[in-house]
Design a protein that fits this description.
Elements (H helix, E strand, L loop, with lengths): L2 H12 L2 H4 L13 H11 L3 E5 L5 E6 H7 L8 H8 L13 H4 L6 E2 L5 H11 L3 E5 L5 E6 H12 L1
Helix pairs in contact: 1-7
């Protein structure tokens, strides 16, 4: 086995979340407006924001999918469903509300700074999610790790 292929096979085990995560994280609180959060997601080109309490403890996450669900757009919706909704028919299983706490996903999936990247990738794949919130032992947000963060770190290691 060449040194490069050996590196590739162990890189996910050797690299830790704390080495890859983003520590400058935009957060929101549960009483903020969904519309304001949608604007942040759109203007910053991000797909999810941690929801924290006043102490920075993670209580959930609000994603583009959560907001789209609140207006009736989900992956499993058909075009016919959306047309009916536009004509006034209610959609079942729809998250409703004007504030973050009404539509956020809670609890959020979290990890720790000491977790290896291989485990994070496995969780993301199994749960079909794009990011994990990184918390300390008191469940206080210390960062976020996304698929893009992992890809950048792996590419840096392989070069």
């Amino acid at each position: 086995m060449s040194p490069k292929s050996s590196l590739r096979s162990t890189i996910g085990l050797d690299m830790l979340v704390k080495d890859v995560m983003t520590t400058s994280v935009i957060t929101v609180q549960k009483y903020e407006s969904v519309l304001a959060v949608a604007d942040i997601l759109s203007s910053r080109n991000i797909s999810g924001i941690p929801v924290v309490d006043r102490q920075g403890t993670v209580i959930g996450i609000i994603t583009q999918a959560d907001i789209l669900s609140s207006v009736g757009i989900r992956k499993d919706r058909t075009f016919k469903d959306l047309l009916k909704h536009m004509l006034g028919e209610p959609l079942l299983d729809r998250k409703m509300g004007d504030i973050v706490g009404d539509v956020m996903t809670s609890p959020a999936m979290t990890t720790t700074p000491e977790t290896n990247i291989a485990e994070v990738v496995q969780i993301m794949d199994e749960k079909k999610i794009r990011r994990l919130l990184v918390v300390d032992e008191k469940n206080v947000l210390v960062g976020i790790i996304s698929r893009a963060d992992i890809l950048k770190a792996v590419l840096r290691h392989l070069k």
